């Protein structure tokens, strides 16, 4: 199978304004004002692990992304990014997907070992979680029974959760076929303003998803200015050391 990746990078990142006034948060720099961006780091990482095609879903600041990455990736445009969320961005890629796909949020900084662990899994539907993460109301929390995911949502009570979803997942074969159908059905019902994990949760009724723990690896989701500062000062330097 030819491995693809979908990077969901259409949103503005309003909680990071004014930094994201003209650029999406995927283009925030990691090592200085004009340094490597989150999105460039993701694309370089995916190239190293053997991804054959990277589809980037763009919206806010799409011209800047296209100017930066050029022909290194393919593009899918979410023209309605202001009124939709990541489930709709992923929906727009469905007709271009093959049999094995990594789905990645464009605001997550992580090392390639996360992808390597997903690719090494025996399961057809796997998501990366951090069982050592501090869980709060902003956290996309995951509940497990053994390695199997039984719930995933932000409003999951922390005492019932076992870790945080990174936003880096792998689906192939039957699991991918089920995910595509679930996403299509949800969008057809008008559920366009939801995060893609809502589709993972719905999918659990039809096909199992398993967790791969990445506890101890350096990673961060950049939602707020303090996240960006930590990404630049702590997480990215640790990734560079690996």
Mean pLDDT over the residues: 93
Structural class: alpha/beta
Find the CATH superfamily. Spore Coat Polysaccharide Biosynthesis Protein SpsA, Chain A
Percent helix range = 25-40%
Per the CATH scheme, the topology name is Spore Coat Polysaccharide Biosynthesis Protein SpsA, Chain A
What would you call the shape?
globular
Question: Could you describe the largest sheet, including whether it forms a barrel?
Answer: 9 strands, mixed
Assign the CATH architecture: Alpha-Beta Complex
* Domain unit count: 1
List the helices and strands and how they pair.
Layout lengths: L3 E6 L28 H11 L4 E6 L3 H8 L4 E4 L8 H6 L8 E6 L2 E2 L2 H9 L4 E6 L10 E5 L2 E6 L9 E10 H16 L8 H7 L6 E4 L6 E2 L3 H17 L1
Parallel strand pairs: 1-2, 1-4, 2-3, 6-10
Antiparallel strand pairs: 4-9, 5-11, 6-9, 7-8, 7-9
């Amino acid at each position: 199978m030819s491995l693809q990746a979908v990077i969901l990078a259409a949103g503005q990142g309003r909680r990071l304004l004014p930094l994201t006034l003209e650029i999406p948060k995927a283009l925030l720099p990691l090592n200085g004002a004009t340094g490597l961006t989150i999105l460039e780091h993701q694309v370089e990482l995916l190239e190293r692990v053997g991804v054959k095609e990277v589809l980037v879903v763009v919206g806010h600041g799409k011209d800047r992304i296209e100017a930066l990455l050029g022909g290194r990736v393919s593009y899918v445009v979410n023209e309605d990014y202001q009124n939709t969320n990541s489930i709709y961005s992923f929906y727009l890629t469905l007709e271009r997907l093959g049999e094995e796909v990594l789905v990645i949020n464009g605001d997550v900084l992580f090392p390639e070992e996360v992808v390597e662990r997903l690719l090494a899994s025996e399961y057809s539907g796997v998501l990366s979680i951090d069982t050592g993460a501090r869980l709060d109301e902003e956290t996309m929390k995951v509940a497990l029974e053994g390695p199997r995911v039984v719930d995933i949502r932000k409003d999951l009570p922390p005492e019932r959760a076992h870790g945080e979803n990174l936003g880096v997942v792998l689906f192939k074969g039957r699991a991918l076929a089920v995910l595509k159908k679930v996403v299509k059905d949800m969008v057809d019902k008008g559920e366009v303003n939801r995060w893609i994990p809502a589709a993972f949760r719905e999918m659990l009724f039809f096909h199992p998803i398993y967790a791969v723990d990445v506890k101890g690896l350096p990673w961060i989701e950049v939602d707020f200015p303090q996240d960006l500062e930590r990404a630049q000062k702590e997480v990215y330097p640790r990734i560079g050391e690996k």
